[in-house]
Amino acid sequence: MDCCEQWKPFIAMVAVDFALAVVNILLKKVLNEGISHLLIITYRQSISAIFLAPVAYFWERKGRPKLTVLILCHLFFSALVGATLTQYFFLLGLQYTSATFTCSFINMVPVNTFIMALPFGLEKVNMKNKGGRAKILGMLVSVGGALILTLYKGIPLTKSPSARAIVHKRHHGTKRWAIGSIVLTAGSIMWSSWFLMQAKIGKRYPCQYSSTALMSFFSAVQSAILVLITDWNASKWTIKGKFEITTVVYAGIVGSGLCYVVMSWCVKQRGPVFTAAFSPFIQAFVAVFDISILHEEVHIGSVLGSTLVVAGMYILLWGKSNEAEDCVTKHLPITREDEDCSQLSHVKSVPSNLNST
């Protein structure tokens, strides 16, 4: 039983990454059909809010703190940054590039979060410590990989059928690939910003299911308003076809609902470092689907840049883990000494109490 319990987080995270990879592939095919990015976000977040609302109500109704205007404002802006704008940039980049290339920028999120947390004091680096030096090295390696992803495409390593190759060249030219890289970088920065915002919100409103349901609701409203502003055509609101409907429902329930619940459980069981370390599996699964189903070309720049980003991410996460272990090790002797001192003081106090009696 203990062995099964230990393997549950591993199996859960692999399942989550596989599910998210399927979401990316399905959304790529839907975007190729010409459906609006904002419309996808509107329906996806609406479905997520409807799915998470009853879960949040029954699981957190006893310990839920009171909602204030300040908390609602924080959740509103958190939804704007972490859901609406992040998903819009990633979906736009997904349309301009490929699913595999898009997932490369998902791997940059932990590194971007670390860099952005430094000025706010949420992350600290001790260059005298081995873990601190590893974090700086991992950051530099990941930034180098990100630059290669953005600036260098390289020769294709796989070949597409001739008919699809023409479509690929027409839709994925160098200019569109460069625009897609910039948009994906913006999406990665937005997502990293959301993690910093969420750290503050989590302290004031620690109910993760309720906050996610509210964020999904706010994001759906924001996306719907943007759709109305950019396009008043009512016919665009209709999603036709079983495949498109299935994709949006799957992305809402599984991608924005179940996957978040499972990841939150894994964070509680093994911590955020363990959960973040599985993100490269999404790209691995997507690469298999991308080549076999969508017949997309894989370029040497994507492979080289992705390898450096993943390597840098693992170096940085190792550094964080090493620093945490050193911190615990340093505090253990102090704790034991304090315990010994307290025991000695207790022993010395016994005779004095006896004499007083």
Automatic annotation (TrEMBL):
One of its GO terms (cellular component) is membrane. It is found in: Membrane. The keyword Thylakoid does not apply. Keywords: Membrane, Transmembrane, Transmembrane helix. Residues 11-150, 179-317 form the EamA domain. One of its GO terms (molecular function) is transmembrane transporter activity. Its main location: membrane. It holds the Pfam family EamA. It is a multi-pass membrane protein. It comes from the Eukaryota. The chain crosses the membrane at residues 7-27, 71-90, 96-122, 134-152, 177-197, 209-229, 249-267, 274-294, 300-317. Belongs to the drug/metabolite transporter (DMT) superfamily. Plant drug/metabolite exporter (P-DME) (TC 2.A.7.4) family. This is WAT1-related protein. It comes from Actinidia chinensis var. chinensis (Chinese soft-hair kiwi).
